[in-house]
């Protein structure tokens, strides 16, 4: 009997079922600390937005941040006393910006009811357009908080926002699925350096930079394996292949023994 060719779906079905094992070293783990949806929405936003740099570093910062916010991030924001954040910083974000972010989140809650409700108000099928419209409402003519609420750009892959959407829209052992106004088929892969390198090596994108176009290319490739839920592979690819197999974006002899995707990558 002829052996079936390796596919992403077959590899995932064999090796990707224990997703929560990968989540231990992922910022999504912070959402699961809170049972309430309002707290999970806030925790997810903050965890996704500060998920850059070394895993150990941003996890340590998030531990400190959520420690300050106490048992309920939502109630912490509603109370409005952010003096405890003085002296806080993470890489490029100093305490002034973190406090302004808290105040902005409180304003979003006051005006819309929450982040999801704000996006629902502006969403017409394109997250970017919704985010840009929300930014114009929150910061008209201002350059404040562009790291968290980016200005319009056709090339920005919006990795951290797409990561947040994956958590809020999908529902499985890891993602919490709080929002129903976005279809999981319309999600775009959070394009971190690991996913970009995998996409290049697998031939899913030819883009030479990690752009929004590259994110769309890779998402379309994932849809060929799972049209209704392309991002179900994201956590597995990032941690098991990108981090675990130390993907460099180039197919070499060393990949054969450590990369589960070796048989479906392209020789270049």
How are the secondary structure elements laid out?
Layout: H1 8-15, H2 19-23, H3 37-49, H4 55-69, H5 73-79, H6 95-112, H7 115-122, H8 127-138, H9 159-169, H10 193-201, H11 212-225, H12 234-243
Helix pairs in contact: 3-9, 6-7, 7-8, 10-12
**What is the β-strand count?**
0
- Based on CA atoms alone, the radius of gyration comes out at 19 Å
Helix content: 40-55%
Q: What would the average pLDDT be, to the nearest integer?
A: 92
The run of helices and strands is: HHHHHHHHHHHH
Low-confidence sequence ranges: none
Overall structural domain count: 2
User: How would the global form be characterised?
Assistant: globular
Structural class: mainly alpha
Distance between the first and last residues' Cα: 30 Å
Could you describe the largest sheet, including whether it forms a barrel?
A: none
Outline of the structure:
The chain has helices spanning 8-15, 19-23, 37-49, 55-69, 73-79, 95-112, 115-122, 127-138, 159-169, 193-201, 212-225, 234-243. By secondary structure, it is mostly helical.
Written description of the protein model:
This protein is mainly alpha-helical. The protein has two domains: 1-26 and 182-268, Orthogonal Bundle (Endonuclease Iii, domain 2); 34-156, no CATH class. Helices cover 49% and strands 0% of the residues. The chain has twelve helices and no strands. α3 runs antiparallel to α9. The longest helix has 18 residues, at 95-112. The radius of gyration is 19 Å and the shape is globular. The two termini are 30 Å apart. The mean pLDDT is 92.
């Amino acid at each position: 009997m002829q052996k079936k060719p390796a596919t992403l779906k077959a590899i995932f079905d064999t090796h990707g079922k224990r997703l929560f094992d990968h989540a231990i070293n992922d910022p999504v783990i912070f959402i699961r600390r809170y049972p309430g949806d309002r707290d999970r929405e806030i925790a997810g936003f903050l965890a996704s937005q500060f998920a850059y740099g070394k895993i150990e570093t941003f996890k340590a910062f998030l531990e400190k941040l959520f420690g300050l916010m106490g048992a309920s991030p939502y109630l912490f924001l509603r109370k409005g006393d952010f003096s405890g954040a003085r002296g806080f910083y993470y890489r490029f974000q100093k305490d002034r910006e973190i406090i302004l972010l808290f105040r902005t989140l409180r304003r979003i809650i006051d005006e819309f009811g929450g982040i999801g409700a704000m996006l629902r108000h502006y969403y017409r099928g394109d997250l970017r357009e919704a985010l840009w419209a929300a930014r114009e409402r929150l910061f008209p003519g201002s350059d404040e908080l562009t790291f968290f609420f980016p200005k319009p750009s056709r090339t920005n892959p919006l990795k951290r926002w797409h990561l947040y959407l994956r958590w809020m829209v999908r529902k499985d052992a890891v993602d919490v699925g709080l929002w129903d106004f976005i279809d999981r088929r319309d999600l775009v892969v959070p394009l971190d350096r690991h996913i970009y390198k995998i996409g290049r090596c697998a031939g899913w994108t030819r883009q030479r930079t990690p752009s929004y176009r590259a994110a769309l290319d890779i998402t379309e490739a994932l849809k060929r394996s799972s049209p209704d839920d392309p991002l179900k592979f994201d956590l597995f690819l990032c941690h098991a292949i990108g981090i675990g197999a130390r993907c460099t974006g180039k197919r070499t002899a060393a990949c054969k023994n450590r990369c589960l995707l070796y048989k479906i990558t392209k020789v270049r």
